[in-house]
Amino acid sequence: MIVTTKKLFEAAYGKYAIGAYNINNLEQAMGLFRGNVESQAPFIIQISKGARSYTHKSMLEAIIRAADALFPEAVFAVHLDHGDEETCYDAINSGFYSSVMIDASHEDFETNVAITRRVVEAAHAKGVVVEAELGQLGGVEEHVAVDEAGAKLTDPDKAKEFVERTGCDSLAVAIGTSHGAYKFSGAQTLRLDVLAEIQKRLPGFPLVLHGASSIPQEEVERINAAGGNLKGAKGVDENLFKRAAELGVTKVNIDTDGRLVWVRVHREYLKEHPEVVDFRPIGKIFMAEYAKMIAHKNEKLGSAGRLPEIRKLLGLD
């Protein structure tokens, strides 16, 4: 069942975070639903601007609707990830998305406020909730690339002003993470001190953590052993997720870790079976491995086992 992120965040706040997972195709969708149902977790499906154009946005929406029918127990939100203003309006007017993210974080503060406010007004008129972003993460996300020097942590005082002036429903904050597989040199560190200051100024308000893939080194090593060439990839310590949740983070975005599973499964299988031309056996392995990764992430986020209480809260059981 598709719900708004607002309902999920109200249930999770201060206790755990909801996993937000990007998908682009059938195999990811099936693995995602299986992993969340098996671990009994509510979740958020994220669709990026790139995913909407990978085949066609209607194709991906149809896959999600089919999965919803196949897994009636599932409770999830459908979220537009890193949308520009035009894409946000398209998603809002489609009637399919329950949540959109307007990312104007690359603009100056006043422009970010103005763009976000326009999107909020359009979304709220249709019952859609809005995530915005303040501060800049480094790395690469869709069409946005920010180097290490250009990354900017979220200013707690500005965060309070931004939320008050825009009316957004949740805020993505920059506290030391980065996008993509090619993280900055060294391990990623969550600035929990900055997060705590933001929470003090916005008590009870849902915060979002982007760029939160952990980049498991075992995955990197297996990919490289099967012919890959990933170097210097580091991620976030997933054991910090629950601490972040206590400080107001209710949504954690995970994309790259899923891509690593995809690459690892395909590289290993094709290396071991160079004669294969049937992609379906590989797809079956990936769906099982992706579901396993999702279930593991939900344990770290604290959302595993929460589905029964969510369904009861929503009056579904």
TrEMBL record:
Zn(2+) 2 binds at D103, E133. It comes from the Bacteria. Its EC number is 4.1.2.13. GO terms for biological process: carbohydrate metabolic process. Binds 2 Zn(2+) ions per subunit. One is catalytic and the other provides a structural contribution. Dihydroxyacetone phosphate binds at G180, G211, A212, S213, N253, I254, D255, T256. This is Fructose-bisphosphate aldolase.
